Structures are given as structure tokens and as C-alpha cells.
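Changelog note: in this version the structure field was regenerated for every chain. One regenerated record is shown below for reference.
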Amino acid sequence: MTDSTRSQDVAITKAPPRTERFYSNNELWYFRTREQGEIGPFRYRSEAQSSLERFLRDLKDRLESA
């Protein structure tokens, strides 16, 4: 931090900590979204990733058609 930067200025510009989008629990996979929270379970991480991609595509389509 430079002398001309106030500590509160630095705190404002820092991004909030990110949580991991994918996680497993009891050998099942889930992903998190801001809109719908926890989505799953999936047997494989790749299934969770595919489902997230589909979710994001659908969300984008809805936003573009609005």
C-alpha cells in the first residue's frame, strides 16, 4: 500500500471472497448458484459441470428474451 492510499480505500476495492462453486458430500456432487442456491446431487463432477453449463445457458436465454 502506498502512503497516498488510505486503508479504507483498499478495503472497498477488494472483491469479496469466492466460495468453490462445485463441492462433493458423501461422494455426490453439487454446485452453488446465487439464484437457486445448492443444486444436485450428481454422481459425477462432470455431470454437475454439464448441468451448470445448461443452467447458465437457460438463464442467459431468459435474460436476452426479456
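Spot check on this record: Residues 46 and 59 are 20 Å apart (CA to CA). The mean pLDDT is 84.
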